[in-house]
Design a protein that fits this description.
Number of helices: 29
Radius of gyration: 26 Å
Largest sheet: 5 strands, mixed
Number of strands: 14
Strand order of the largest sheet: 3-4-5-12-11
Distance between the termini: 42 Å
């Protein structure tokens, strides 16, 4: 077996050192566009739309480049090294004018593929695509109509296309083997060809084949508009590594090299080119009429956030956690993946570790050591909180215990879930409650008129107006989800993904038509900390202490606190979430209970159709979210950023990290979609073995208290400032971005300054 000491102390191989350098160098060169076929052949246009979609997948895969990165042990690339051709983008059209027109009326198109799904990779490895194809064929006698037959046809065509692509890659490996003189490389290429000929068509037989098969499907999904995550890789691939080790088919050193090469594949398409640099950014004009996410989020702007997210593709791997038999799932592959992330110092793949009360100390300490190297990965998920929360919305424990995330942090059940989500701004609801349903930025009516707030006589009046606004937003969202639940299927079915989603083949329905075992739609409360703080400030300053009237507050908000500095100071001094303050936390608990109960009430009648798990989140969009909000009763000025996810407002958690965790933990229990607490640690506080012990104790405490998700970013303000001054010296400096990881020097200046301000509050 592989010991942890071996994993930690092993030297990098020359191959890995070379690949790591070349992948990093390639990021600085803009990729060249690839000529994707524009449309499937006219001879197929009379076929059913799902079949045409499968034809489009087959067409693209038949033309995808098969070039290999020199020295790589895995075939299949979205972006080549020489020339730097990028083949991920582009997809052949397969629709008619009438179909596109009808879809447009419903707000969908061929691009209405959400991603954020984890395919059933264990099934892929155990059965192979031939076995999955046989399942589809076996359903033929049960097909009730043309639609069901068309779905089965689409699955078979898509699966065949993947097997054909794998065969093309195998032939390329054999061709390369014939062309090289180095015997060792020749042997590797022959083995790579053999791997591709066995799997994914058939069941994987070795660790190398398992990783190749998973990578190949991952690459194909991302190349066909499905940005999907990896799920619990260390659980479903460990069986193959364990068997290889026990049979003497692989040495620990080679297993480690395979993991390193596998992880580097996720970074081949990464970019750190000139247009991303902060000095190259063009100012973006904000348009108040174009909010994102169906007007339930306050987020404005797209260009900055799009460039900041250049290297984010939902490539999350989840490690550790409880197994189906309620045992700890930590194994040597868990540590190999952690160590590879630490050594590569890149942003992909993302890592999340599941922990619980019985997680081994060696895992917790290893996680801390990786976190100390920067990047904010892995994120920490608590099984003790999330599994019961999933059970609470009707997910059987046998499924809930296998939970993963969707590529950021939202919780789903891998291989069994059709998932989407929406952010609902709680600060917009409060803003509307204090402005008769109107936006304080442009005066447009966006919520119901809940009366003149200047006439509110009690905090309950404010609370009821807020609840009315929230109820209207939730009702509108649930109704829209239910009314449009199958709209994607009319133009953007996903036959290949459906082949790897439990329930689809058995029901003979595409995932987008209800074929998945579970359908979930995450309802994520946005700007939660500021909502808690604002409600607490109104309750405390206006009604309990009587230090100002509602008219005073409304006037101050209208003036963005200009001329109202004393009142703003009182509002800022009111109790705040994140300080283990019972006043603020009681308001927070009441708010979360109200939000989840409101969602439950509107979702209950649709529970047979879809589940609506609640969560709290902003992802990395906290600057744009703040730009779409007016002045807040907690003292926040108009347009200022909000806090990330379920973290305390910037600079308002004055009692230290333990108090922030205590406040956060009081809000948990009924948020099965999740909601991370994003924390920052000064590097000096975690130095050496003593620092690791301190961090490990912090994680244990988080689990004990019942928190659900936590991220820890280790950095120093001085380091971030130095990276701004001399970006060339800090190319590998990474920061956590709400649900993913980014190179600090490639972020917008606004994001950089925001990270520095967040760090300064912890230094």
């Amino acid at each position: 077996m592989i010991s942890i000491a071996q994993i930690r102390k092993r030297p990098d191989t020359e191959r890995v050192l070379d690949l790591r350098r070349r992948v990093r160098d390639a990021m600085e060169h803009p990729p060249v566009g690839w000529d994707c076929p524009t449309r499937i052949d006219d001879q197929y246009m009379s076929e059913p739309l799902p079949v045409r979609k499968a034809r489009a997948i087959a067409l693209k895969l038949s033309k995808m480049p098969t070039d290999l990165w020199d020295g790589q042990l895995f075939a299949g690339s979205m972006t080549l090294e020489h020339p730097r051709v990028h083949a991920e983008r582009g997809f052949p059209d397969y629709t008619t004018d009438a179909e596109r027109e009808e879809a447009s009326k419903r707000g969908v198109s061929i691009h209405s593929i959400f991603g954020h799904i984890v395919p059933d990779y264990p099934k892929l490895l155990s059965k192979g695509l031939i076995g999955i194809r046989a399942e589809a064929e076996a359903q033929r006698p049960q097909a009730q109509n043309d639609e069901e037959n068309a779905f089965l046809d689409s699955v078979i065509i898509a699966v065949d296309a993947v097997m054909d692509y794998a065969e093309r890659l195998a032939k390329r490996c054999d061709f390369e083997a014939d062309s090289v003189a180095d015997e060792r490389r020749k042997e590797e290429l022959r083995q790579m060809a053999e791997n591709l000929q066995q799997s994914p068509s058939g069941p994987a037989q070795t660790f190398w084949q398992a990783l190749q098969s998973v990578w190949l499907l991952h690459e194909i999904f991302h190349s066909t508009m499905n940005g999907n995550a990896m799920g619990r890789l260390d659980q479903y691939v460990w069986l193959y590594l364990q068997a290889d080790l026990e049979a003497g088919r692989i040495e620990p050193e080679h297993a480690a090299e395979l993991v390193d090469c596998f992880c580097l594949k996720f970074n081949e398409r990464a970019k750190t080119t000139e247009e991303q640099a902060p000095e190259a950014r063009e100012p973006e004009r904000l348009d108040l009429t174009r909010r994102t996410r169906h007007y339930t989020s306050s987020q404005l702007g797209t260009n900055r956030d799009r460039l900041d997210a250049t290297n984010h593709w939902l490539q999350n791997i989840v490690i550790g956690g409880l197994t189906s038999d309620e045992q700890d799932g930590t194994n040597p592959l868990t540590f190999l993946l952690l160590e590879s992330y630490r050594r590569n110092r890149m942003t992909n793949p993302l890592l999340t570790v599941r922990v619980h009360l019985r997680s081994p100390e060696e895992l917790i300490r290893y996680v801390c050591d990786v976190l100390k190297d920067g990047g904010g990965m892995p994120a920490i998920f608590n099984d003790e909180c999330l599994v019961p929360a999933l059970v609470g919305i009707g997910i059987p424990r046998a499924d809930a215990i296998d939970y993963t995330n969707d590529g950021c942090w939202e919780v789903i059940i891998p291989g069994r879930t059709d998932f989407r989500f929406q952010r609902l701004s709680m600060m917009l609801c409060l803003e509307w409650a204090l402005n008769r349903g109107c936006s304080s930025l442009d005066g447009t009516q966006q919520g119901p008129d809940t009366g003149d707030p200047r006439t509110f006589k009690s905090f309950d009046d404010v609370w009821q107006a807020f609840l009315t606004q929230m109820d209207a937003m939730v009702e509108r969202t649930v109704r829209r989800v239910v009314e449009t639940i199958d709209d994607r299927n009319i133009i953007a079915p996903v036959p290949l993904l459906s082949a790897l989603i439990d329930g689809a083949i058995e029901s003979r329905r595409d995932m987008t038509a209800g074929g998945a075992k579970f359908r979930t739609f995450g309802m994520l409360a946005e700007s939660a900390a500021h909502t808690i703080d604002s409600l607490t400030a109104i309750k405390t300053v206006i009604f309990e202490k009587g230090e100002a009237s509602m008219s005073d507050l409304c006037d101050a908000l209208d003036a963005n606190f200009e001329g109202y500095a004393p009142l703003r100071a009182k509002l800022l001094a009111a109790p705040k979430y994140g300080n283990d303050d019972e006043q603020a936390d009681a308001v927070g608990r009441k708010f979360i209970d109200a939000f989840t109960e409101t969602v439950k009430q509107h979702a209950e009648k649709h529970r047979a159709l879809i589940k609506f798990p609640c969560g709290v989140g902003t992802f990395s969009w906290y600057i744009g979210i703040g730009e779409g909000l007016g002045t807040s009763p907690d003292g926040r000025l108009s347009g200022q950023p909000v806090s990330s996810n379920f973290s305390p407002a910037l600079g308002r958690d004055m009692e230290g990290i333990p108090s922030a965790i205590l406040s956060y933990s009081k809000m948990q229990g009924n948020l099965p979609a999740g909601g991370p607490l994003d924390l920052r640690l000064a590097r000096r506080l975690v130095e050496g073995d003593e620092g690791t012990t301190r961090m490990a104790a912090l994680i244990r405490t988080f689990v004990d208290l019942g928190g659900s998700m936590m991220t820890l970013t280790v950095a120093d303000t001085e380091e971030l400032r130095a990276a701004q001054r001399e970006p060339e010296k800090y190319k590998s400096l990474r920061v956590r971005m709400g649900g993913w990881c980014a190179y600090f020097t490639m972020l917008s200046r606004e994001q950089q300054e925001h990270h520095i301000r967040r760090q300064e509050t912890r230094s």
